[in-house]
Amino acid sequence: MESMNDALRENIGYVDGHLREYLANDRLLLDRLYESVNYTLFSGGKRLRPLFCFLTGELFGVPRERLVSLACALEMIHTASLIMDDLPHMDGAEQRRGQPANHLVFGQDVAALASIGLLTRAYEVVLADPQLGPELKTAIVERLARAVGMSGMVGGQFADLYFDASESKAAALAFIHELKTASLFVASGVTAAMVGLAGEEDLAALATFARSFGVGFQILDDLSDRAEDGGDVESAANYVTIHGPEAARQAARDSLNRAREALDHFAGKNGKLLALCRLLGRDQWPESGSGEGSRA
Ligand code: GRG
Questions:
Q1: Is there an atom of ligand 1 within 6 Å of 153 CB?
Q2: Which among 132, 190, 210, 221 has the fewest CB atoms less than 10 Å away?
Q3: Is 115 a pocket residue for ligand 1 (Cβ < 6 Å)?
Q4: Shortest CA distance to 184 belongs to which of 220, 208, 148, 154?
């Protein structure tokens, strides 16, 4: 477990170095826009989607240097979504990672532009990457756009905002989690595998893995939000508020176990991704006796 923690830390430094290059401001008049972008981009994110991308690439022998633009693009998309999610007409959050939300520091107008600017820069850096051929780049950007748009994060956010908790809760929640959160993990894995010229079966196994990982991750995130506010803050409908923390913990466990089962397809080279699943779920069940590949 320690080694995955070390990998996480090392990964943050590696990704941050490249993100700084991609987000360097060379226009005098845009200082405040870049400040807003960089304020949230460098406020302590775990860089999980880049790591997910790199670890998936390793399955296909792709060195992370070849995945840098893609990994940074994924983090830019993620950050853009957080800035937008915090805006008053969305989640209306006042804090992000223990600091005032972007719009409270820079104003809603600048925060909205920072979000769209980052999202657009994500596509730009992939398309400008000389390491990736034109067909591959186009396919990657198409896959990223699908994960972000109406059939991905935007659709999931919409469903989350207008979700009627009294109607078919289980199906609606699963739909929201898959679109809002899991779709970017699926894209992180699938696009890295595309760089590794993965075949259809591998891509399908990866998508199954990443979808379950992402759903489990979202439920754990809702659980940790509840732990932080002690259950006092009236929060939006989610797995925890609807089904309670015990059922939520079980659902997260089930999801992460499904993710680990999907990794059986990559037996022999799936150790790091399995370790990432364990790291994610370690507060939810004891680590003792869980060898590589074992189920909680
Ligand atoms: C892409 C601009 C854009 C919009 C898409 C606003 C929106 C539409 C979607 C919001 C999706 C959202 C906020 C999902 C929550 C995902 C989640 C669990 C985030 C927390 O991820 P961590 O823990 O965060 O990886 P850190 O802080 O480590 O980066």
A1: yes
A2: 221
A3: yes
A4: 148
Please report the DSSP string for 41-64 in residue order.
HTS----HHHHHHHHHHHHTT--G
Distance CA 31, CA 24 (A): 10
Q: Tell me the CA–centroid distance for residue 282 and ligand 1, in Å.
A: 21
Q: Nearest 5 degrees, angle CA 16-CA 19-CA 24?
A: 125
Averaged pLDDT for residues 246-253:
93
- Average pLDDT score over residue span 170-194: 94
H or E element, residue 232? none
Q: Specify the 3-state DSSP secondary structure of 146.
A: helix
Using the mean position of ligand 1's atoms as its centre, give its distance from the Cα of residue 221 in Å. 10
Q: Which atom of ligand 1 is nearest to the CA of 90?
A: 6
Q: How far apart are CA 70 and CA 202, in angstroms?
A: 19
The residue ranges of every structural domain in the chain are 4-284
**Helix, strand, or coil (residue 120):** helix
Global pTM reads: 0.93
Question: What whole-number distance in Å separates Cα of residue 240 and Cα of residue 243?
Answer: 5
Cβ(106)–Cβ(37) under 8 Å? no
In the structure, what pLDDT confidence band is assigned to residue 241 with cuts at 50, 70 and 90?
confident
Report the CATH superfamily, name and number, of domain 4-284: Farnesyl Diphosphate Synthase (1.10.600.10)
Per the prediction, the chain carries an average pLDDT of: 90
Average pLDDT, stretch 75-99?
97
Return the beta strands (E) in the chain as ranges. Answer: 95-96, 99-100
The residue ranking higher by pLDDT, 290 or 120, is: 120
Mutate to test the pocket of ligand 1, among 157, 186, 222, 279 (most ligand atoms within 8 A of CB): 157
CB 76 less than 6 A from any atom of ligand 1: no
